[in-house]
Design goal:
- With 457 residues, the chain is an alpha/beta fold.
- The chain has 13 helices and 19 strands.
- The protein folds into 2 domains: 170 residues, Alpha-Beta Complex (Aspartate Aminotransferase, domain 1); 256 residues, Aspartate Aminotransferase, domain 2 (3-Layer(aba) Sandwich).
- Bound molecules: pyridoxal-5'-phosphate.
- Keywords: Aminotransferase, Pyridoxal phosphate, Transferase.
């Protein structure tokens, strides 16, 4: 763990993409108001203005998808299916890949878990977000120890795969960018290792897709999953895209209308169902056309803005934050792969002498900065990085000690294409002030959250 960045900081940060909420002001406990600095993109990013405008322009034309004869139903169905093509293009999917719209990354990975062939072995690093760690309950799962370098990740996987039954199906699940450290994982190399051992691989791109262009074809992953709400499209949709065969062969994720092609009563009194073999097989019920259109709109917006330029801009913000934190000896940045690892705008840290929940509460109440504190639904990873007991399950996001006590949690700051430079500068200044001068207000724990004590300053 170290906070020393090795890159010079470029202070010229160009204009952010327009997002909703950029003019929202929030009250400070110390008096007055300030523009809210949303620095919790890794949880949910604000909606792009473009996404909001596209959704608003479509809303009067909203109609049922795949079922109505009317004009607006036809229009909505076209919009839904065109959105599928737009997102597939954004992900650079292969010919023959299927793209299923889901509710979220969690939903996508649970869908894939439900579609595993019989006897499938699953390999997953203990460092994963719970959405990648937990859905494989019905499979034989091998949990791989946290690697300390990207190369070690590959050798750890290779070793585990070498021991497996080479004739049975196997799946590796790996994250593209950590929701704790922001570090990029060696996805292409892990995919090559998986394939060399006859296994398949699914990429959890919840934190990668919003921060980095990604190509299913180039990374050679079998599936990719991500969420709309982390990609500036918070309307309740997600994506699972990739190989069609396991999805086509599996029982529908949800049984119902839309997934079924033909349903008839049998002579014995039962019901005979012919299920769709396309993505519709796993999209039973009325689809969330607004959520799906919002994702497609976000994909277009990022592409048209120049995703590479957005990445370069975000990297400059990463440099500003890491350089600022490095100037505070009490701050320890959490890292698995070290300072040189490429990373996205997600940085977790602890502050010596501070409970993380207390620190995060002070950032909010005294500076109008929204970050997250806790274990970030990646308990084993955060506990490994903090050096605390990895067996202790803890609560997701709950503070574990009173303000002032040593923290077993961390603080996470995260940002992206909509983040103004002022927000990260204010964050760095706030960290320095809090560490040097302490909080200006008293805090107490209420319902598991650290909150300003309104009775006392
Ligand atoms: C790496 C990673 N995977 C999966 C998820 C789950 O995403 P969702 O809550 O949208 O299902 C998250 C959410 O924070 C995440 O960071």
């Amino acid at each position: 763990m170290s906070a020393r960045p090795n890159t010079a900081v470029d202070t010229t940060v160009s204009t952010p993409l327009a997002v909703l909420g950029r003019d929202v002001t929030v009250p400070l406990v110390t008096g007055g108001e300030v523009t809210y600095a949303a620095l919790d993109y890794a949880a949910s990013a604000p909606a792009l203005q473009r996404v909001w405008d596209d959704v608003a322009a479509y809303a009067p034309y909203y109609g049922s998808v795949h079922r109505g004869a009317g004009y607006l139903s036809q229009l909505s169905t076209d919009l839904f299916e065109n959105s599928r093509r737009t997102v597939a293009e954004f992900l650079d999917c292969r010919e023959g890949d299927q793209l299923v719209f889901t509710r979220s990354t969690t939903d996508s990975l649970n869908l894939l878990a439900a579609a595993l062939p019989a006897g499938c072995q699953v390999f997953v690093f203990e460092t994963e977000h719970h959405a990648s760690l937990l859905p494989w309950r019905d499979a034989e799962v091998t949990y791989l120890n946290a690697p300390r370098t990207p190369a070690e990740a590959v050798t750890t996987l290779e070793r585990a795969l070498a021991d497996r039954d080479p004739y049975g199906p196997a799946l590796v699940c790996v994250t593209g960018a950590s929701n704790v450290t922001g570090e990029l994982w060696p996805v292409r190399e892990l995919a090559a290792a998986a394939h060399a051992h006859g296994a398949r691989i699914v990429l959890d791109a919840a934190q990668l897709a919003p921060h980095h262009p990604l190509s299913v074809r180039e990374l050679d992953v079998d599936w990719v999953a991500f969420s709309g709400h982390k990609l500036y499209a918070p309307f309740g949709s997600g994506v699972l895209a990739g190989r069609a065969d396991w999805l086509q062969d599996a029982d529908p994720y949800l049984a119902g209308g839309g997934a079924s092609r033909k349903v008839a009563r049998r002579a014995d009194g039962g019901v005979e169902v012919e299920w769709h073999s396309t993505a519709a097989r796993h999209e039973a019920g009325s689809p969330n056309v607004i959520g799906v259109y919002a994702i497609a709109s976000a994909c277009k917006a990022l592409t048209e803005a120049g995703f590479d330029e957005l990445v370069a801009r975000e990297q400059r913000l990463v440099g500003v934050v890491r350089a600022g934190l490095a100037e505070v000896p009490e701050v320890k940045v959490l890292s698995l792969f070290g300072d040189d690892a490429p990373r996205v705008g997600v940085i977790s840290f602890v502050v010596e002498g501070w409970n993380s929940s207390h620190f995060a509460a002070a950032l909010s109440a005294e500076y109008g900065i929204g970050v997250r504190d806790g274990l970030f639904c990646a308990h084993p990873l955060v506990r490994t990085l903090l050096g605390s007991d990895p067996q202790d399950p803890g609560e997701c996001g709950a503070p574990e000690s009173e303000p002032g006590e040593r923290s077993l949690n961390a603080i996470r700051v995260s940002f992206g294409a909509g983040t103004p430079e002022e927000h990260v500068e204010r964050f760095v200044r706030a960290v320095k002030e809090l560490v040097a001068q302490g909080a200006r207000w008293n805090y107490r724990t209420e319902d598991g959250r650290c909150v300003p004590d309104t009775a006392s300053a």
